[in-house]
Amino acid sequence: MNTKIILLLALAANGAAIAAETEVSDSDRIAQYREMISDGNPADFDEMRGEELWKTAAGPKMATLEKCDLGKGAGVVKGAYAELPRFFKDTGRVQDLESRLLTCMSTLQGLNTEEITAQPFATEKKPSDISSLTTYVTGQSKGIKMAVSVKHPKEKEAYEIGRRIFNYRAGPYDFACSTCHGASNQRIRMQDLPNLKVQKDAQGAYISWPAYRVSQGLTRSFQWRLNDCFRQQRFPEPKFASEATVDLTMYLAVSANGAAFAGPGLKR
Amino acid sequence: MNAKWMIGTALTASLATLVLPVQAVESKLDAKTIEIVKRDFQDKGIAKADRVNQDALQALCSKYGNKPPLELKHKIEKQQQAAIKWPADDKYMGDWKAGEKLAQSGRGMTWSDKAEDPAGGNCYNCHQLSAKEIAYGTIGPSLLHFGVKQGNDLDSQRYVYGRLYNAKADNACNNMPRFGHMKILTEAQIKDLVALLLDPESPVNK
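The joint structure predicted for all components is written out below.
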């Protein structure tokens, strides 16, 4: 174990203590925290775990993921997330990072998609492989400008359908994403709500995930964020890496174009 | 046939070829969206997959980005209004203390709630209500001193009861849930909330 890891472990423990102190306001706490982790974020652990998974032979085919094509050619991870979702010729579909990872894990490693998606999100008890892999891959786009294309007709269609899903009202409360994220300067209780129809807010929201959640002591993926918003929307659960989530992600990613990707981030 | 008329027809024809495909593409995308949503959601806890099926109002508001043509808007508001179940006893004011508890509770109907957990009103999620509670949301207008401004005669009571039972009867695509219509709250709970808003003793009116 190198010193950086030890330092991070100590900081993570500290973070939990800070999170327990409810008198401190969220923004104070995050400012404090930012200072503490100026040379590291507990999300780094998850990133390292993902890198390990990427480079370790696994599955019936005992292969690594190092030949996975995330859109910029086999094995290119750097900058790949900043251009996802995109259309892939080999599958004939628009894919986001998660659905593309599933393709690679099944074609290269021979893994069963249902088994991989049985636990798509980390819990306190158990990390999630697919979630750690996304932390690793997204980290390789840090500082790179979001440049998601809608040139291919299928990309354009995914964007259009994603926009419709964003505005799709249903369920016992008649909510859509736009109910909570369709106007500026609104909040639920004390939680500020980004207006995801406005570029600046959409950029800030998109580029900051995945994130280490101080309040949960876990690194959370962007897909977890969407999933939990569907929960608050009183919707049923979106199937992991389904077309509905890919299209919604496409809409949000395009809205974030032009901003430098900043994840894995840190949230209250 | 004069030249002007001919140009006119030509223009209309070319406009038609421009406009029609756009509409066709739009409605094809609408249909595909619904197909995808119906396929890609699954039951989780009490939140069953069929919750994505829209009623007429949800479909209308989604299709027009919450700004449907006035004629359609008024038509659906009338339908919603007609479906309100008014209390048989013609009484509307319950217990404001119970109402305040309901207003504070933000729980209910998510997949992490249990079937036996009663739903709250979520009112503070979206509204300022009493001066004491500073942790309020701003999706809806402030209701501080609502009863003082509104008065609490029978008309006001009926207005608020109807508003809570079905907020869409007044304004089809607004962002407030239909608490009675969707069976989130009972008649007795809605009366408690009417009292919270209108009773002069309630913290809302202090």
